Structure formats: structure tokens, C-alpha cells
Amino acid sequence: MREPRIITLLSDFGLKDVYVGVMKGIIATINPDAHLIDLTHQINPQDIVGGRFSLMNAYPHFPKSTVHLAVVDPGVGSKRRGVAIQVAGGYLVGPDNGLFSGILSFFPPLIAVSLTNKQYWYKENPSYTFHGRDIFAAVAAHLSQGIPIQILGDVIDPESLLRLSIPDLEINPEGIKGSIQYIDYFGNLITNIPQSALTSKNWTIKVGELIISPDETYSNVPLGELVAVVGSQGWVEIAVNGGSAQSKLGLGVGDSILMLRRTQRKT
Amino acid sequence: MREPRIITLLSDFGLKDVYVGVMKGIIATINPDAHLIDLTHQINPQDIVGGRFSLMNAYPHFPKSTVHLAVVDPGVGSKRRGVAIQVAGGYLVGPDNGLFSGILSFFPPLIAVSLTNKQYWYKENPSYTFHGRDIFAAVAAHLSQGIPIQILGDVIDPESLLRLSIPDLEINPEGIKGSIQYIDYFGNLITNIPQSALTSKNWTIKVGELIISPDETYSNVPLGELVAVVGSQGWVEIAVNGGSAQSKLGLGVGDSILMLRRTQRKT
Amino acid sequence: MREPRIITLLSDFGLKDVYVGVMKGIIATINPDAHLIDLTHQINPQDIVGGRFSLMNAYPHFPKSTVHLAVVDPGVGSKRRGVAIQVAGGYLVGPDNGLFSGILSFFPPLIAVSLTNKQYWYKENPSYTFHGRDIFAAVAAHLSQGIPIQILGDVIDPESLLRLSIPDLEINPEGIKGSIQYIDYFGNLITNIPQSALTSKNWTIKVGELIISPDETYSNVPLGELVAVVGSQGWVEIAVNGGSAQSKLGLGVGDSILMLRRTQRKT
């Protein structure tokens, strides 16, 4: 059976310039049968944490052997490595700066390679500012054609891959202290508290002095009201029915929130 | 002959998050040969009327048997139905909230199905907030592979599909009272007066005390000037050559306008 | 061997409306095997100079026989011609308004045709405002299927194609007077001074009273600092590490800059 030949693309390049289109031209030149799917190109400029979150959430929904090409690369032109990583069900290509560490926390790296074999680059003398074009796009295209990952360069210890340390959850008797890890397009505030941390349905979210009650879905509360839900990506999030929780609460990534366990009241 | 296997996507998800990419991953897993074409993901959040307008205008330009997947879904998680609809030349998949009623006013539904067969869902226990991923994307992918629509759930009376009532035109002896139904990226104000309502070339648009004269195209009037044209989608629209009619007039969706018939002057 | 069947799309249509999706529907109806790649649809409205720059930079990275469909078309509906142009390695389709003149300055036109053969249009009576849909998309699709370009209309003298005159560089003993020709999504100020004009590594950029030193890459200077680099597209550009040079300097397209040659100091 024909393998799927999907390459996803994620970057902070935006959609105004032709940078993304150029990467696609290079890929299509190498592998005309590649199926290109954009994850997003609107990661905030140089926001590795946001890129890490987005990749982690998208990864499980793609078929096996998909190649994920990701370029949020503030260190381009410096000594940071370019890498290709094989994980269960897919390949990752991009800078070794923590961008993939969300995926790697769920899917451990099987093989990791430093991209030193110039034969698979687009330009033997890459620019100092656009390795997405000069190295990563070409490498992803070659991988999507089924070449062995080891041929792309020096095999490295997967333990040496850079991991981003995300603020840990602080578990207290009364609840969990967490923080906001991502704010989506709708202004939903996505926390770092996973669904699995909710041991019962008796919980609330405390933000400053405000207590926000949980519900199953936005539309169960009146328009304009705050609600805490377990979002579609499996994290506790704060939302406003028909509005933006970000605008309403004025919170940002990294701000603290509390999940309070409610004790059963005996009446 | 090979059938076209196009799936179009329309939503209010924006392009910042990976929501759209995830839907594409699910589709490509089910049908690797699907050809995915984005209509837009920048429908204003929860703006069913804008989504309805955009779908209606895009629909006629796609090949037969295209599947149109549309998710503007403020009622997600509530009791609103998910539906698949067969119309002449295509299939529609999404929430039953009026989003498709523009298409249906031109292309009557042939078969309508409530999406109750979980075998064709992505998740048997869908999230409360993202049926685009958990139900609609998978259903669209299966339809694009040629499965019969009836297998997707309970066949329902097409008359029961929710229709949005758009403000009707009010036809007077002196002209037609209409309103603005959409404002495009360029700031063109698109009215709900169709080209077919223009019985002669002798007409003007009245907005407040302002009279706007018609012309065949923007560039026939000086830069910065207002002009009324029959737009490419077949509606009377108000435009500014090289500028934005929205900014110039400060009007919004729903605001009233008048089309005045000019009587032939005898001199 | 199968020819690549890529059609790139560039426009100022934005992504809010379905205009781009509609062009893709028409292309897919004519040639279901076309591989569609967006360059950008966020050229500033009617900015032919920005479109020209973007096309010129993207063009070299696409495989031979790619069809480049570009629609930035302030003169739509007027007498300006629609054209198809064959160049080494590709085809260009769009309005004859200078949009292609950047590509043509590097890749001279081999054959140019005025699009007068209505048989290859989408609508025999095109709208006055959307030739992208009614003429250009269909023509690009037919070209991607391998029809001879001459069949599309009247062969015209390639010398008659409209060229945009970009402000020339002014070369003085002390350096080169140039200007900013494009500002990208990151706020990098891209000048019209090509890498080939740098005869040594001893140069600086002067903007007003400010002297900006060159470096190989953004990340070699402290966060927030200005730096001049040779950008990935081969032009001298002014950047800020981790920030926007546009915001920092308040400059726009067309503003003057000086490249100063530094004489070797003898100490």
C-alpha cells in the first residue's frame, strides 16, 4: 500500500510574505507527490513555547509516517543544531530548540539526527537567516520520500535534544496551582491542567478573587458569561460564551490560576 | 472516470491555532486522496449569516460531487443537529443552524441525514466544543470516498432543516429598500439586492442623504470616489475606487440602503 | 516522466472572503490534478510593486513548468490587457500591469500572449471586477494541462509588456544610495541593494544620522539591537534581533537609505 506522504508545516512566518510558499516550492520540486498541510504560520514571532504547544496538540491527529516540519527559530545562524527526529508514527524536522519537546514528552524519540549531510540540503551554503528554506524544507521532502533518517547526518543521543521546562503544576490539598499556557484565536485561556488531573466533577477555577464554575460546554451558560471547560485538546480552559475570556479577564500566557476541589457539602 | 475528490473547508476558526490543520489531518487519514481547498477560516466568530453568504457564493464554482465542510457552530455541545445534505452537484456537512440555507435557497436539498451513526465519527465520545474535529471532518472524508449518505445516520425531512430568514427586499414604486448583507476584505458593502432586480440601467443607490451613481467597474471613477457596481457575485455593492466604502461611509451589516429607479427625463 | 502540475497563486484578495477559494474551485474543475500552492494573498490592496517583489523572490524556487497565477489588478475592467507569458522554466498569468516585471528582469519573456481567446475563459462575458475568477484562473488551469500558450490568444511583442521602473541605485564614491523596497511580516526593511553590490565586507548602512553595522545574522547582536544583514532573498536588509526594524525606525517603502563603504583604516 502507498504510504501517506503528508508534510505538515508550522512556523512564525505569517502569511504576508512568500516565505512559506517558497518552502512549498522546494518540497514540491523534490517530492511532487507530497501532500502539504499547514498547521499554522501565525505562531507569535519567535514564540517557541506557543509553537511547542501547537505541535503537541496537532501531532496525534495525523497519519503514521507524516513528516512535521516546524520552523520557529530565533537562533537561526547561531550554533543551535538542525535535527530530524523519528518518533512513533512520524518524523519531526526543524531546529533543536525545544519546539518539539511537547511531542517528545508523549512520544519518546526513537532516533535523532543532527542535519549535517549537505547532500540533502537545498543550498550547500545556507543563508544565515532562513534555514527553513535552505535546510529543513528539503530534508522534510527527502524524508517524505522514504529515505532512511540516518542518512541525513550524524546520529545523536536523543537525550541531548533540548527540552523546554514548562512550569509544573503545584498540587495542594485544596487544589492545583497552574498557569495559562496558550491563548487561542477566540480568546480562550488554555491552562496547563490536563483533564486527567480532574478527579471529580466538583471543581472550580479561581482567578484572583473570581470563582469560575465548570460546565460541559460554552453554550450552557448565558452569552457573555465566564465558564471553565475541559477543552477539545484535553486541557482545562477558561472561556466566555460568545466572547473572549482574554479580553474579559486581561490575562496572559504564564499568569497563575487555581483549580479548587470542592468538598461535598453535607446538608 | 475518476470522480473529483474535493473537500472544501469553511469555518470561523481563524488561522492562528491548529484547529483547521487537525481537521485536515483527520480527513487525510481517512482519505489520503482528498483534495482539500480552504474557502475561508476568517468568518467572524459565530457569524452564521456571514458563513451562509460565503458558502452560497462559493458553491456554484466547484465541480460536481464536491463535499463542502462548514463549521460555524455557536451551538456546539447543545441539542442542535449535525447534518449531511445532498444537493444537486454536491454534499454539505456541518451543524444544522442555517449555515447552509443560502445554498439551499438555490439548490434544494435532495437527501438530508442527521449524523447519528458513530461508526463514521472520529471520536465515539466527541468533545463538547469541537464537533468539526470529532464528527464533521471524519464524515466529510467518508463522503468524499463515495459512501452513500444514508449510511451516516437517520434520514430526516429536508423541510426540517433550519433556514435563516434574511431581511426581505421591500419593493416600492420608487425603488427597492434593501440592506447590507456582507462587507468584504476590501471594504466593499455588498447589499442583498441581486442583479436580477435591476430592470434597467437607470438606477442609483441612496444611503442617508447621499446618492451614489452606478458604473460598470471601480476604475471608471476617480480614485477615492464612491461607486455602485454589480459585484462579481451578482449583488449590487457600494465601493470606493482604490479605497474602502466601509471606512468612507461607516456602515455595517444590516444597515439599510435604497435603490432608486430613475425615471427617463424628457427634455 | 510526469510533468509537475503546480499552479502558484498570489493576490491582494486577503483570506477573509471566498475569492481565492473560488479561483481554486475553477482550477480544480478544469484540472483536478493541479497542485495548488499559495504564495500569498496578503499583498497590500492594489500594491503592484509589493506583488512584483514577492513574485520575483518566489519564482526561482519552483520546479520547471510551474504556472504562476497572480492577480493584483487595480485596473480590472479597464483596457489593460490580460496576458500569459512563457519564461525559462515557467508560465505567468495575470494582468499586464508590471506585476511580472521583476521576474522578467531576470528571466526574459520567450512568448507573450494577450488573452483574447474566450474559449479558455471561465465566463465568456466576464464580470468587470473579478478577472481572476472569470479569465485568469481558467487560463492557468488550461496551461497546467499542457496546452500550447499560443492558443490562448494573440501573440504579442514581449517588448510591449508593461515594466515597472523601480528607483535605480545611485552609486557614489562613498557608497550607494538606495531605498526600501519591501517590509516583511517581521518588520525587516528590505532595501533595493543586492548582495552583488557589496564588493567587500566593509560597509555600513546610514539611515538619517544613524549608522547600522552589518553582521551575518540577527542573533549575533543583542536582543532589540539594529543590524544590517544580507537577507535570505539576496537583498541588504535592516533588522532588529527579536523585534521590528519598521517599528524602531518608523520607515516605509520608498524611504532612502545609504550604504557606505568603509575605507580600511591604517593605524
Topology (SSEs and partners):
3 copies of one chain form a homotrimer.
Chain A: E1 6-11, H1 19-30, E2 35-40, H2 48-58, E3 66-71, E4 82-87, E5 90-95, H3 101-106, E6 111-114, H4 131-144, E7 154-156, E8 170-171, E9 175-183, E10 189-194, E11 203-207, E12 210-212, E13 226-230, E14 235-240, H5 245-249, E15 256-261
Parallel strand pairs in A: 1-2, 1-3, 3-5
Antiparallel strand pairs in A: 4-5, 4-6, 6-7, 8-9, 9-10, 9-15, 10-14, 11-12, 11-15, 13-14
Helix pairs in contact in A: 1-4
Describe this structure in words.
With 267 residues, chain A is α+β, with helices and mostly antiparallel strands. Chain A has 5 helices and 15 strands. Chain A has helices at residues 19-30, 48-58, 101-106, 131-144, 245-249; strands at residues 6-11, 35-40, 66-71, 82-87, 90-95, 111-114, 154-156, 170-171, 175-183, 189-194, 203-207, 210-212, 226-230, 235-240, 256-261. In chain A, strands 8, 9, 10, 11, 12, 13, 14 and 15 form an 8-stranded antiparallel β-sheet that branches. In chain A, strands 2-1-3-5-4-6-7 form a 7-stranded mixed β-sheet. In chain A, strand 13 (226-230) and strand 14 form a beta hairpin. In chain A, helix 1 runs parallel beside helix 4. The longest helix of chain A has 14 residues, at 131-144.
